[in-house]
Structure formats: C-alpha cells, structure tokens
Task: structure prediction
Amino acid sequence: MTEKDKIYRLRELINQADAIVVGTASGMSAASGKNWRYFYQDDDVYKKIAGGLREKYGDKNFFDAYYDPRMTKGEHWALVLRSMDHTRKAEAGESYEDLKELLDGKNYYFVTTNQDALLYRFFPADRITRLQGDWRYFQCKNRCHDEIYENEKILDELLPKIEEDSLPEELIPRCPHCGGEMVEWVRSREFLQGKLYKEEYDRYLDFIRSNATKRILFLELGVGMMTPMFIKEPFMNMTYQLPEANYVTINPKHAKIPKEIADKSLNIQDDIAYVLKKLLGKSTEHLDHQDKNNIFDSSKIY
Ligand SMILES: [Zn+2]
Result:
C-alpha cells in the first residue's frame, strides 16, 4: 500500500469507528516539537534543565542524568524541579491540536505512558488513563499513605532556592504523615499505584468492555519497544480477540505488525506530526519532516 493509500485507509477507519482507543507514548510528545525531546537528546531544553550538571557528569540527555547514581540528592532534586517547571510551562505544539481536531465529536478514550500531562491540556480528564504517573504530582516515597499531591506551589517555593545546581537537602519536600521524603509520582520502584491509579485503569477497561463487540479502533501513536507491555501488546492482543477491532500504529521506527492480525491492521512508518496533518488535509510544508534515519528513536524510552 502506498503512503497515500494508508492515510486514506486510516481516515476511513476513524470515520467508521464506533469507538477509538488512542494509545500515546513518548513518540507522540516528541512529534510535538523541540520542547519535548530533552529526555533523550542533548538539546537546548536539556542544557537549561541540567545547567552545570551537564558538564560536571557528562550526561547527554535528561534520561541518563535522571538515573545517574553519581549525583547528590540535592542535584537530583534540582534536575527534577527544573524538569517539572519546564513541563508545566512549555508549549505543547501542533500535533496535539491536530489530534484534538481529528477526534472532535468521536467516541474516544486515551491511554498513555507519557508523564508530561500534555493530553490534559486538550482532552477531558475523564477520558484519560495514565499508566506511568504524571510530573505534576508528588507522592510519599515510602508509600505510607494513598495520596498524591499537586506540586505547583512547592515548585514555586523551591525553584528560587536551588543553589549551584543543587537543592539544599533540608528543603527536600517531606511526607505530612511519616516525615519521609516525597518523590515525583512517576513509574519507579516506589511508584504509587493506589486508589486513583486503579480507578483510572478500570475506567479504561470499562470503555473497552462497553465497546467490545462494536467497531473499535486501537490507534497507537509513538509507542516504542522499551515498554511494549503497557500499550502495544494489549492493543495487539485485543485486536486479535475482538471481532470488529482494528489496529493502527504510527511510528517512524517501530511500526511492525504480527501476521496474526495483519488483515485487521495498518502500519504507518512515518513522523506522527506529518501523518496527522495529512489526515486533516493540512499543509505539511512548515514541518521539519525529519530524515527517517535521524528521527527520534522512541525505543529508547517508554
Ligand atoms: Zn509517608
């Protein structure tokens, strides 16, 4: 099938679907522009967040810096706070706007491994399930109680107190119950999968259950191969099991389909930003339609 045929076919699948389950991962945010690629590349955003730590430790992207065991606790916190600040302030980019336009009036539901909360700027919270947490919240590192805390105010207080790329350790936020350290609410060994997490997960399953016999489209945007168990594999399995289901994956590098569901599936190996524009019949000229060999490799994270 030519690229043009694939776009046409996807348009048709979206129009005919009774329900659309959209799975988004790092590739979706990366497609939204330069504000959202610092997790895996040595760009201006990463340089701003890392400050002097970049030179000091030699890490060349946020992901490596975030997991660098050589950093002091205070330095790690400086990195985390600056990333949170960037996440809440930076522009989302056109791809999310295009996605919103594409889904307008449709019966859709999102499942995401992204922690940047960009979906919440465009879509209602009751149509989103977060599988890996959200940078806008803290939790108790000891998981001594089942609650997450909005970190907006704490962020405003602590950012000006970072000195020489380090937060003084006595300022690290503390749990109001056990006095232990707080930590960002994102997937890690300590990740809190409490009541809220389960409610959101059930809501996602309910959406699938209630549409299980209808024409349901699993639309996968930018899911890599690092954690296929969260979105990719369930989408493939459900496509195999549900009679009227279809599966579409859009990814510049990992748009592969197993033969068992080949007749119900479509793979578009291309830039998501570009495909969304094409689906809407919009111009793609202003996009930096990247060379496929140099494009962001979403297999690296999430
Ligand atoms: Zn606690």
